[in-house]
Amino acid sequence: MNFFYFLYYNSYMENDLNIANSLIGEKKFSEAIEVLKKYEKENNPEVLKLIGLCYLNLEKFPEAKSAFETVVKYLPEDATSWYYLAICYDNSDELVQAKFAYNKVISLRDKYVDAYKNLGVIYLKLREEENAFNLAKKGIEVAPDDYIFYYLAGSALLSMKDFKQSIEYLEKALERNSSNVQLYCNLGTAYLSVQKPDKALENYLKAIEIDDKNAVAYYNAGSVYQIREEHSKACEFYEKAVELDDSEFFLSALALEEFKAKYYEKSIKHYSNLISSHPEKPNYRYNLVCCYEKLGQWGAAIQLLEQLVSANPKSRMMLIKLAGLYLNANRPADAKTVYERLISQGFVSDDIYYNYAMLCSKTGDLDTAERILKKVIELNPSYYRARKDLGVIFLNKRLFKYAEDEFKLAYKLAPNDADIVFEYANFMQAMARFEEATSLYDKAIELNEKNPRIMVFAALNILSMHDLKGAIGYIEKALKLMPADPFILLNAGKIYYAAKKYDKAQFVLVKAWELNQNAEIENLLALTYYAQKEYEKAITIYEKLIKEYPTNTNVLIGYAQACEKAGKLEEAKKYAQKILEIFDEMPEAKKILKRIKKLEENA
Prior knowledge:
This protein is mostly helical. It has helices at 3-25, 29-36, 45-57, 61-74, 79-91, 95-108, 113-125, 129-142, 147-159, 163-176, 181-193, 197-210, 215-227, 231-244, 248-260, 264-277, 282-294, 298-311, 316-328, 332-344, 350-362, 366-379, 384-396, 400-413, 418-430, 434-447, 452-464, 468-481, 486-498, 502-515, 519-531, 535-548, 553-565, 569-582, 587-602. Among the domains are: 179-281, Tetratricopeptide repeat domain (Serine Threonine Protein Phosphatase 5, Tetratricopeptide repeat), CATH 1.25.40; 416-515, Tetratricopeptide repeat domain (Serine Threonine Protein Phosphatase 5, Tetratricopeptide repeat, Alpha Horseshoe), CATH 1.25.40.10; 517-602, Serine Threonine Protein Phosphatase 5, Tetratricopeptide repeat.
């Protein structure tokens, strides 16, 4: 190239550089690139810097990076070019290279504030919190009024779990800038970490006040309410977060919180959405099972969990949950099969064996239940519930000495367990050791004063001692706790009947019958009507019972006696004779016939 051409060429390039600078000033970056492209291959640093700057503004980071990488080869001391190159690395997720480039900037120009800021963020992204903190302290020396460095220091300390010092720096950042949403969020998290939920909530709400479209701020505020177990309030904030950002993170948090708030229908809806979007995640299906379980929708829960178990056949947690659902659905045999499967897979523990034994007992397999309970005790001699239930089996088998030994041991191991004390009392009552039973029933009531079932058995025990006043005292306490329970009402009827308080007996028995129309209640109600001399009402009930139990002599004698009192002598005579055909030594039937015969003779 001759000298004149060189001068002409440089003059021409200088003109293009001026044009490009004008275009850049007008933010016409693409047009500026077109002007400068013809000089790109010449590796002119000034041209490449302008091209790189245009690409950077157009967010074409690979092209910008290529330009600035060439520039720093020719101008290794140019801090600005290193800074722009660092930005390119940063935006390309090349964090290690970005860290190197920002450090280079600072080494060339130790007051380059923006380089300190960006490098601090890079350190945090790389989980180099200590470096971030140390850099932030240097940044504070360079620019003591810039909130960013206090913010970076506080955030680094937050990640390092130095919450107290983190709060100090973040509060100083707020003094310099009170409008940064993320700053309030980080400060809230720091306060939450030092068990100051009120201060945390204050900061999260301030973040929402500044930016009511910030989903994270709503989520954070909801988390405070969740920790306080104010689940309904937490749901309100989580719902707002989901409105702003329906991503999996926020939606799953809302679904779980709705479950805790007992909004099961809403939780089902959201878990169903999560399952549709993320079929690969079994935890959402499992949580949906739990929702159905809470609503008592056993069929839906079982169907879904069976699918999960099929995909995860060795999941102990899922198998145990499935067994529980089978029990709730009144399918104890299926539950028993699940526990057999658990044991065959090697999931052997005293709890699993115990639950299996209970299922064996529930399905009538008492021999297996006995054998497994003994195995539980071999594994854990202090397993008092197993000893108690083994005692119950021995009692049912009339092995009284063995039963007593187990109940004694269970009571010795757990003298303050209401269930153990209660079952020991039941054993004493079965053995007609009523005084000892009373003492144990009273202790069980003291341990669990909200359990009316214990009071009912205590009442029946003391009734066996002919203490009618004491029995009424116990049963009325039980009625107060559960006034609409058929079992309690029936036994209240028995006690009132025994005490000859027939009006009260009638009241509770009618109520019991309205809740559960069974033969025992009907028979006792008929006896009560008979005692009240309401013979027609008694006859009506007995007629119904005779259809169901045509050979039951107690029902037949009650009917015959009621007919006799009602003046229906032929009917009374007919059924008295029928009773003697079934049991020819029934004295009550003979007395009815004798009385009727005497009346006929007198007539």
